[in-house]
Specification:
Blueprint lengths: L2 H10 L4 E6 L3 H9 L6 E7 L3 H10 L12 H7 L3 E3 L2 H6 L5 E4 L4 H13 L3 E4 L2 H18 L3 E2 L5 H14 L3 E9 L13 H5 L3 H6 L4 H8 L2 H14 L18 H4 L14 E6 L16 E6 L3 H9 L10 E6 L9 H10 L11 E7 L8 E3 L6 E7 H6 L9 E5 L14 E2 L5 H17 L2
Parallel strand pairs: 1-2, 1-4, 2-3, 4-5, 5-6, 7-8
Antiparallel strand pairs: 7-9, 9-10, 11-13, 12-14, 14-15
Helix pairs in contact: 1-15, 6-7, 7-12, 7-17, 8-12
């Protein structure tokens, strides 16, 4: 039975899926715009550090005040309304909640909320890729032990890539490469919140008139977000990250099978089974023809001459040999699609992409020459960007994860482009996020024999 039919059946039976959203930013707001339009869904609570900001988000997406006027979670559950609060922990602990969505964007908050979901037996949808890459392999194990589902977020690119990979493998095709598109030039790695708008082409008037967060936008531009998302895909799809970070080859949709094949066959990949991000602009700044800036893809290989002939007969774009072909989705709708994850967990008991083994990590890397005593400012900031690397290399080099590179003070000078290690910073070993990450590192060192 389809998802929507099963949701309608739950609505008719008076058993809606009870959902709590933590974090009412852009992604969360996009889901808020759709949740009331979906049968069988009751958004019972919205938790945000600023309840007034959450209420403003609800108003912006078209909610009437009466719909979120409940003064307690119990009242909201009883009346079919929504409770707005700043107490995420109480929401997660409530008997009136089935599924929790973490859309905070904070690695530390995401880890805290995921562990609370495990404690209180709540399924969790981790929109927060920063938290997932920082500690997702360990969080997924904790969730499995607790008997709850830990899921990627439909609408976000990692989940959409995982869907394509799963499709290809389920019909017997070997996935050669999977990833997404973005706008990239090498100089973007040095971008800061002060320079980001020029790279995006936004005018001062546009920035002044919109809800723009310079550091968040810069994390997309400087390569950090791409690295995080590809680490999530590597960890969720049993694919390998490149040894020296993403290459961002310029590539349009028609050239995916030609570019994203092994070097031995004329492509750019060291081997089959990789993740990679393609750029929507050439290195000289010219636009790529039929670019994939907003989309996702999977390249796969025909296992036989017969399948190669089928590729040709049904119009798939292939490389010159006919062996490699690609499927892609040109756009993603982010939080507007999140209801797919909610429905899949509630009625099929399936995640929409799930973190598995730890294959890819994202290390803090200096944007410029840094001096001892400087304080790191994390994703999209002035000091470091995130570089994708194999987990074994990250563990050997004691790489500082980008998700913890906030407010840590450097103990030595770091050269531009140099990886920052745990030994290079002063950190609080008592922080929950640090403890969880170090536990994960110790666990996988033992499992990998490092």
């Amino acid at each position: 039975m389809s998802l929507i039919r099963q949701l309608k059946a739950r609505a008719a039976a008076g058993r809606p899926v009870r959902v709590a959203l933590v974090g009412a930013g852009k992604f969360g707001s996009m889901y808020l715009s759709q949740a009331p339009r979906t049968p069988g869904i009751h958004l019972v609570a919205v938790a945000d550090l600023s309840p007034d900001r959450a209420r403003a988000s609800l108003a912006r997406v078209g909610w009437e005040d009466a719909r979120h006027a409940a003064t307690s979670l119990a009242q909201a559950a009883r009346e079919g309304s929504t409770f707005v609060t700043d107490d995420a922990a109480a929401v997660i602990a409530s008997e009136h909640v089935d599924i929790v969505i973490d859309a905070t964007g904070s690695p530390a908050a995401g880890i805290r909320h995921a562990l609370l979901c495990c404690e209180h037996r709540k399924h969790v949808i981790m929109v927060n890729v920063e938290a997932d890459v920082l500690a997702g392999p360990l969080l997924a194990r904790r969730a499995a032990e607790a008997g709850v589902i830990y899921s990627m977020a439909a609408g976000d690119q990692p989940a959409l890539i995982a869907e394509l990979v799963d499709w290809a493998r389920t019909i017997g095709l070997e996935v050669v490469c999977a990833g997404k598109g973005t706008k990239y030039l090498p100089v973007y790695h040095q971008s800061t919140p002060e320079t980001v708008w020029g790279h995006y082409g936004f005018s001062e008037a546009q920035v002044a008139g919109g809800d723009f967060n310079a550091q968040m936008f810069n994390s997309f531009l400087d390569g950090t977000k791409s690295a995080l998302e590809m680490a999530a895909v590597a960890n969720g799809c049993e694919l390998d990250p490149p040894a020296d970070g993403l290459a961002f080859p310029p590539c349009g949709v028609d050239d995916l099978p030609h570019v994203l094949r092994p070097v031995a066959d004329g492509g750019v990949l060291p081997r089959k089974g990789m993740v990679e991000v393609v750029s929507s602009i050439e290195r000289d700044g010219r636009p790529v023809f039929r670019d994939l800036r907003w989309g996702v893809y999977a390249v796969f290989e025909a296992p036989s001459r017969y399948v190669m002939d089928c590729f040709q007969q049904y119009g798939l774009k292939t490389d010159a040999s006919g062996r490699y072909a690609a499927m892609y989705k040109p756009y993603h709708l982010i939080g507007l699609e999140l209801g797919i994850s909610v429905a899949s967990i509630a009625v099929r008991h399936e995640a929409t992409g799930a973190t598995g083994t730890w294959r890819g990590d994202v290390a803090a890397t200096a944007k410029r020459a840094l001096r001892a005593g400087e304080k790191l400012d994390g994703e999209g900031g002035h000091t470091v960007y995130g570089k994708l690397m194999p987990t074994a290399d990250s563990l050997r080099r004691r790489a500082l994860p980008i998700g913890l590179a906030h407010d840590m003070v450097l103990l030595r000078d770091i050269g531009a482009g140099e990886l920052v290690s745990w030994d290079d910073v002063r950190h609080d070993a008592g922080r929950q996020a640090v403890q969880v990450r170090r536990e994960q590192e110790d666990l996988f060192r033992r499992e990998l024999g490092l």
